[in-house]
């Protein structure tokens, strides 16, 4: 036994650790592809990582870029082991967001970083005859197009805001010490998204913005289901259960 341990010098141990790490990395696979050749115009795009041995999904990012990003909305589903982020992004003229010449801002400390607008707004959505309504925080900034939708447009017009709203769907296998919880909005969105995919139907949204300007947009569950592999949609939503707080 002593002769064996004598051979485990520091260089031998380091080499062994590197070999083990390399062996693990070879089990990880990744893929990305678009729904059609028009990406990033009117197309879904998928990036995901998986275990090359078991095909178990580790993470996924589904992005929809519209034909005319700005007035038309972009969607993001960023799927992680314990949660999925659902985001909507679009552009709007600054003058359409200002009230009495000013932006409402719930996060004024970030104005110096280009985040000029932050406000809770009402969002309504309906799917398969069911109607939902809640408030969502909408943020607006002039730093540029969000990184995840950057392929759709190179520059943010000087007279516009990049606007974004999001919700986090927290699943029941998340470790309790992470402290993330669902909101009324995330529970409603989870139900609506799951219904749209399972019933292959459309979610219709109405976002109420300042100055009486409503933004109407939709997400086609049938189209998304036809594009994304079933195991990705299972990982992102369909075979997940919300954390019940």
Q: How big is the Rg?
A: 22 Å
> Structural class of the helix and strand makeup?
alpha+beta
Low-confidence stretches: 1-26
Distance between the termini: 54 Å
Q: Work out the number of β strands.
A: 10
Q: Compute the number of helices.
A: 6
Biggest sheet overview: 10 strands, antiparallel
Q: Helical proportion?
A: 10-25%
Q: Which range does the strand content fall in? A: 35-45%
The best one-word shape is globular
- Spatial strand arrangement across the major sheet: 1-2-3-4-5-8-7-6-9-10
Average of pLDDT? 89
SSE succession: HHEEEEEHEEEHEEHH
Structure described in brief:
The protein has six helices and ten strands, in the order H-H-E-E-E-E-E-H-E-E-E-H-E-E-H-H. It is α+β, with helices and mostly antiparallel strands and 245 residues long.
Task: Describe what this molecule looks like in 3D.
- This protein is an alpha+beta fold.
- 23% of the residues lie in helices and 38% in strands.
- The protein has six helices and ten strands.
- The protein has a ten-stranded antiparallel β-sheet with strand order 1-2-3-4-5-8-7-6-9-10.
- A hairpin with a 3-residue loop joins strand 9 and strand 10 (213-220).
- Helix 4 packs across helix 5.
- The longest helix is centred in the N-terminal third of the chain and has 16 residues, at 10-25.
Reconstruct the topology from this structure.
Layout: H1 2-6, H2 10-25, E1 28-34, E2 43-51, E3 57-65, E4 74-79, E5 83-93, H3 94-97, E6 115-127, E7 130-141, E8 160-170, H4 184-198, E9 202-209, E10 213-220, H5 221-227, H6 230-238
Helix pairs in contact: 4-5
Signal peptide: 1-28
Keywords: Signal
């Amino acid at each position: 036994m002593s002769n064996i341990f004598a051979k485990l010098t520091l260089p031998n141990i380091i080499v062994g650790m590197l070999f083990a790490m390399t062996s693990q990395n070879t089990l990880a696979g990744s893929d990305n592809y678009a729904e059609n050749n028009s990406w990033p115009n009117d197309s879904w795009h998928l990036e995901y990582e998986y275990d090359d041995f078991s095909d178990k999904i580790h993470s996924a990012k589904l992005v929809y870029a519209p034909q005319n990003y700005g007035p038309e909305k972009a969607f993001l589903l960023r799927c992680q082991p314990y949660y999925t982020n659902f985001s909507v992004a679009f552009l709007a003229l600054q003058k359409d967001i200002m009230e009495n010449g000013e932006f409402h801002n719930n996060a004024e400390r970030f104005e110096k970083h280009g985040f000029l607008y932050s406000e809770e707004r009402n969002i309504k959505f309906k799917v398969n005859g069911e109607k939902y309504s809640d408030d969502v925080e909408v943020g607006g900034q002039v730093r540029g197009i969000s990184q995840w939708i950057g392929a759709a447009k190179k520059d943010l017009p000087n007279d516009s805001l990049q606007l974004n709203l999001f919700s986090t769907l927290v699943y029941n296998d998340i470790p309790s010490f992470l402290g993330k919880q669902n909101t009324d909005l995330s529970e409603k969105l989870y139900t609506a998204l799951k219904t749209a995919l399972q019933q292959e139907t459309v979610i219709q949204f109405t976002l109420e913005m300042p100055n009486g300007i409503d933004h109407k947009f939709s997400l086609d569950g049938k189209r998304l289901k036809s594009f994304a592999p079933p195991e990705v949609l299972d990982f992102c939503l369909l075979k997940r259960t919300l954390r019940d707080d």
